[in-house]
Amino acid sequence: MVLVSPIFSSHKMITWIVRAAEVAMVPTPWSGECVYDVGNGEKVATLKGFGCLTQNIMSAVWPLLGLAFAVMVIAAGIQFIVAGGEKEGLAKARKTLTYALMGLFLAALSWLILAFFNYLFGFNLTTLKIGS
Hints:
By secondary structure, this protein is mainly alpha-helical. It has one domain. It has helices at residues 10-24, 49-83, 87-121, and strands at residues 35-39, 42-45. Strands 1-2 form a two-stranded antiparallel ribbon. A hairpin with a 2-residue loop joins β1 and β2. α1 (10-24) runs antiparallel to α2 and α2 runs antiparallel to α3. Mean pLDDT is 75; it is low at 1-8.
């Protein structure tokens, strides 16, 4: 799929966004301290598996937030076009765009706060670590 074509169809753009999100959401394999080998090739999840689960969830959250932002910006653009100069339609489009930008700002701010606590106190709040 070539993203540099002069005419973008909405179907091609949505397909590209979904594929980008799928690539970003590759889960962390459960191995090492997350599972215990009981023999015969069978493995059982341990309490430390919650850390792996948290990492998998967090790796899915950020791309989904980006996808939600992109969808809201596209929706606001369509609302601007469809409004045709009507004040109510333009106000609705501005409101949608404002909410999209506020959501992106809050997501970035939450990540910065977690990074600041990691720097300040020396522990990472974005991963769950049980035991030593």
